[in-house]
Amino acid sequence: MKFSLASVAFLTISPTAMALTSCLGAMTSMSKVPGLFIEHMRIEACEAGCQPNMNHWSHQVKAGILSGIVADGARYMGVNDEKGQADFITFIDRLYSTVEEKCMEHMGDMHLCHDAERIQPVIDCVNRHSYSAVTSNLGVVRSSMSNKRCKKASEYFESDQLWQTDFPRHIKSYVGQCHEL
Fold first, then answer.
1. Please, where are the H alpha helices in 42-66?
2. Distances in Å between the alpha carbon of 3 and those of 13, 58, 153, 162?
């Protein structure tokens, strides 16, 4: 049986190419999270009469919602070690900070529950800058990602598990105290 140089190269590169493809899919899915987070925050928090703003992020949202969601997502992807989970929290926090730096000038003193027309420039900016924020902060989680985890990440970030189960479960603590903030 003869092997050409091209087929040997393909067999050597193929697993790497497959992992790269899975991780590119995960990056695309991750880049949708900030916009989807705002969308779901508006649904859950605004319906409860909350007025989420940037000051709520570090004090309530990050600790009360995001940490739980990251832990759920890490379990879903099979990241069971504390370092891997801490890396994902750092990654999401940096992703948020990068997007915030680019887009919060559009937010001003508004909260996420302002009318859709006024808040749309913020959402558009977030969606426009999320992919570059993901790629520039990917180094934080690189050591924790494998082909399998990239596939699971891609699944989770767009799943009903995240947006219909985990997010609503974790936002309850914020909604329960938002009127006191």
1. 47, 54-56
2. 15, 57, 36, 46
Instruction: Sketch the domain layout of the chain as residue ranges.
Output: 34-180
Select the more confidently predicted residue: 4 or 135: 135
- Residue type at 106? H
Q: Which two tokens stand for residue 128?
A: 């426009």
Residue 4 is inside which H or E element, if any?
A: none
How big is the CA angle at 87 (ends 84 and 93), to the nearest 5 degrees?
145
- Tell if the pTM clears 0.85, that is, is over it: no
DSSP-assigned letter for residue 179: G
Question: 77-110: per-residue pLDDT in tens?
Answer: 888 888 888 888 888 888 888 888 888 888 888 8
Q: What does the alpha-carbon distance between residue 165 and residue 128 come to, in Å, rounded to a whole number?
A: 27
The two tokens of residue 127 are: 């969606």
Q: What percent of the chain has pLDDT over 70?
A: 86
